[in-house]
Amino acid sequence: MAKAVQITETGGPEVLRVTEVPDPQAGPGELLVDVAAAGVNYVDTYHRDGTYPVQLPLVLGVEGAGTVRAVGADVTGFAAGDRVAWAMAPGSYASVAAIPQTHAVKVPEGVGDDVAAAIALQGMTAHMLTRSVYPIADGDTVLVHAAAGGVGLLLVQLAKTRGARVLATGSTEQKRELARGAGADEVFGYEGFADRVKELTDGAGVHAVYDGVGATTFDDSLASLRVRGTMALFGAASGPVPPVDPQRLNRGGSLYLTRPTLAHFMTTREELDWRAGELFEAVAAGSLNVRIGHTYPLDEAAQAHADLQGRKTTGKLLLIP
Ligand code: NDP
């Protein structure tokens, strides 16, 4: 039997139940993995509370790292004993998980399971945003919200690596200090941030805003953009953004608005290996620092969700089975 965090109904953190489930089997194209660390992501809370519809019962979690125990039919390139990490694969809050090989990458020597689990989804999201959604050019100025968060701290560092001037928000002085430590050039709170951005850019605005906060920041994020700037709305930590009149993009200066998800930016083996490979290389080279804010036993998944949604966390949260 495997230990797993399952939901049978949607709701608050209290619907998370630690339970025993039959060991999953590796179906065709799947890897059966002993999970060393499962990543906690904001999307897990959307699955838990029904913001994103899911089929019940569901073992939560879409990210992790561990060691392959067995491979299913038609698997190529992976074998028992390989250390792997994965993103966007359900069932990760468990001691054993069946992961589609299309979502898994091998973890190189020298990168620990905890770091691999921490960058599989959030690192690839930051990579997707800075390399593909709005590919940063040297000298661009960008705005990153919730810069001390899991995605945020990685995003700031990758944006700096691309040569951007990075403006960043965080709700507390401790969070702002972490964002500065990650390389952000200017860091401030959310109150009046669009005015602050305009001040810091001589009235022009930024080339792109990376906004995973959503409802409470969306309007000011649009107002922070320069002519033909890009609004990359990639999450809704403060709630979903109401419908938008396209004319607002015209009035704002022929703006681009996009709502990307990582699932559409890891659609081939080449793309997955490119993103993961660059992240692992950066970790190995010491140019990408991965902050594990807190590690919880699997039994405390509900506490991890409460802390994440209560804005009490920084960096990455991991669950250890
Ligand atoms: P974080 O670690 O960034 O935690 C969320 C942060 O959002 C909080 O710490 C808080 O930082 C900020 N926040 C602002 N307003 C609120 C609010 N009302 N309630 C809670 N938090 C708030 O989480 P993740 O790194 O896991 O995810 C960040 C965002 O990225 C999420 O929206 C998530 O859905 C999205 N995401 C999207 C992906 C995609 O493919 N599109 C993939 C991965 C993540 P502060 O206190 O400083 O404001």
From TrEMBL:
One of its GO terms (molecular function) is quinone reductase (NADPH) activity. Keywords: NADP, Oxidoreductase. Residues 11-319 form the Enoyl reductase (ER) domain. Transmembrane segments: none annotated. One of its GO terms (cellular component) is cytosol. InterPro entries: ADH-like_C, ADH-like_N, ER, GroES-like_sf, NAD(P)-bd_dom_sf, QOR-like, Quin_OxRdtase/zeta-crystal_CS. This is NADPH2:quinone reductase. It comes from Labedaea rhizosphaerae.
